[in-house]
Amino acid sequence: MDLGDPDEALLARVGEGDPAAVRALVARKLPRVLALAGRMLGDPAEAEDVAQETFVRAWKQARDWRPGVAKFDTWLHRVALNLCYDRLRRRREVATETPPELVDEGPAPDRGLQARDVGLRVASAMRGLPDRQREAVSLCHYQELSNIEAAALMGVSVDALESLLARGRRALRAALSDMVEN
Questions:
Q1: Which CATH number fits domain 109-182: 3.30.40.10, 1.10.10.10, 1.10.1370.30, 1.10.1060.10?
Q2: Is 136 exposed, middle or buried (0-12, 13-18, 19+ CB in 10 A)?
Q3: Could you tell me which CATH number the domain at 1-96 has?
Q4: Among the four residues 62, 90, 121, 150, which has the most C-beta atoms within 10 Å?
């Protein structure tokens, strides 16, 4: 049973210029948008920029939002993904002679080195996936969307999404094989 869009009333208040509604919308959606952008881009600063632009677009669209075509959450994820892909395309277009130096921010001693290393390895393996596989894995495993929701968001069939997920999982398993204990 479809109960409609759970964000519809809040979005209407945002469209009316209600500052409390804007804060509530950002508080409700920002963590997932940031997480998605962070996983797609692998750069927290770029992820914040994408999240900011995503919410600017949501704020501009709020007054004209027409429920029924898609859920607001689906639209918001699509905007964030499109902005991520724009940034990924720009990265490929910029040729550099030497790779940038990565700053080792190192974990705090109380956080545990192994957990940090695992997280970095997984993030690196995710960045190594082709864009569509990374998108599928991010939407289903990190954003916790159902296969049906993720397929609709990506504009593919559920079978195509499951194929992307299977290939992505295989690639991640291969990239992280030395970490898996038998």
A1: 1.10.10.10
A2: buried
A3: 1.10.1740.10
A4: 150
Reported as a single tens digit per residue, the pLDDT across 147-161 is 999 999 999 999 999
Amino acid at 160: A
Structure tokens at 25: 């919308």
Q: Six-digit token pair at 119?
A: 């997280």
